[in-house]
Every structure is written in structure tokens, then in C-alpha cells.
Specification:
This protein is mainly beta. It has one domain. The protein has one helix and five strands; from the N terminus they run βββαββ. The strands form two sheets. It has a three-stranded antiparallel sheet with strand order 2-1-3, with no helix packed on it. The chain has a two-stranded antiparallel sheet with strand order 4-5. Strand 4 and strand 5 form a beta hairpin. Bound molecules: zinc ion (ZN). Zinc ion binds next to loops.
């Protein structure tokens, strides 16, 4: 089954605020609400699930995520 990505339109909860993936059949209707908080969500255009590393820094940046690497001693370095 394909995986669809959704993201909260409003504030959202911890589950949907930064987006989440949902596995749905092709015929299923897209989600309109977050399954956790019931807040409105929108479908994000399908991303490539091929051999591309979805957790690569460039891909995270493309999707608006920030990756922080723990450098120890309570300091974090932003890598995206
Ligand atoms: Zn939510």
C-alpha cells in the first residue's frame, strides 16, 4: 500500500504538527483529520520512496525539518 504524508493545517499535536505518514489503500479517501487530536490535516505531495535516503540532510531540509546532532555536553549542532 502506498504511504501518504499529512501535515497539520493549524497548530496540531505532537503527532501531526511536523507531519506524519499514513499507509492507505489507493481507494481510501485521504485523511482530513489527525487520528490523534482530530485537528485538520492536509495531504502533502507524495515524496519519493525509491532509493533516496529520506533522512538525508537535504531531504529533511526540503521538507522543512531541522536535524540536530547531539555534540555532547548539552550542545546541539544544526546540520540542515
Ligand atoms: Zn494531531
Amino acid at each position: 500500500m502506498p504511504i501518504y504524508s499529512y501535515k497539520a493545517i493549524g497548530g496540531g499535536c505532537a503527532h501531526c504538527r511536523d507531519g506524519f505518514d499514513a499507509m492507505q489503500s489507493m481507494s481510501a479517501r485521504p485523511l482530513a483529520k489527525c487520528p490523534q487530536c482530530g485537528g485538520k490535516v492536509k495531504k502533502i505531495p507524495a515524496r519519493c520512496h525509491g532509493h533516496k535516503n529520506i533522512l538525508s540532510n537535504s531531504n529533511l531540509r526540503d521538507h522543512g525539518f531541522t536535524k540536530l546532532v547531539n555534540k555532547g555536553g548539552g550542545t546541539f549542532e544544526k546540520t540542515t
